[in-house]
Design goal:
The chain starts with a strand and ends in a 5-residue tail after the last helix. The chain has helices at 10-17, 21-27, 35-39, 62-65, 78-84, 105-110, 123-135, 153-159, 162-165, 178-181, 220-225, 243-258, and strands spanning 2-4, 29-33, 48-54, 73-76, 93-98, 113-118, 140-144, 168-172, 186-190, 196-197, 207-212, 228-231. A 7-stranded parallel sheet has the order 8-7-6-11-9-12-10. Strands 1-4-3-5-2 form a 5-stranded mixed sheet. By secondary structure, the protein is an alpha/beta fold. β3, α4 and β4 (73-76) form a beta-alpha-beta unit. It is elongated and about 60 Å long.
Length: 263
Amino acid sequence: MKQISSRDNPVVKNAAGLKQGKHRRQQKAFLLEGERAVRELKACPERVLHYFVQEEMFQKYQDILQTLGEERVYLTSDKVIKTICDTEHPQGIAAVVSMPEGDLQKVLQIRGLWLILNGISDPGNMGTIIRTARALGAAGLIYTHASVDPYNPKAVRASMGGILTLPVLGPVSVADLACLKESGMKLLGTQVTQGVPYYQADLKGDLLVILGGEARGMDRELISWCNQIINIPMNAGVNSLNAASACAIILSEAYRQRNDGII
């Protein structure tokens, strides 16, 4: 176990840099902070690169830390924790976690219901979609270049640990998705008014459900690939739902269909 008191320590600077996308991509790692999220790491301790624990909080988090070798635990001051963390009032613990590796071939191996996020720009929506997908049995999630980084600190917090266990692949281009279209998996697109109500669609089997961005919707090329377009019926005068809400509605129906009507 090591002690760090300076915000200029290279380990601290690297961890704090993970709040920026370019550093996450360079280090292939992201920041996880807060007690609840960090406790989720018990399921995958091999992915933890470092823990940072405020000295006064060491006893509180000792059960978490004992799963790691001491060389990966840093005791820090309050000012160092605040430098590392993205939240205004940190809970005294944070971790640097490696990003999983994987490509689109993983979709063909795992199959099931996968989400494709095409232009989701709000990190809170991204994180909530990941949390919802994990809860309602999605096999995984793919995001295109036009979407926000799911390892953005706000997205990670909103995922409530889902980012650790749900397969998340990307960023990919729309052209990269052609291999999935050619694999025989069914593609369902979502539109505000076009298509059939979501509850009339067959949401069982190997399936790709595409959610477009909050402002522009799906790319036209993806629309042309779809086997079916679905929508969520709404009261007149309501323009649309946000992406996370739409995702929850569609996935809850998929869960019901895929589990013999149980929900």
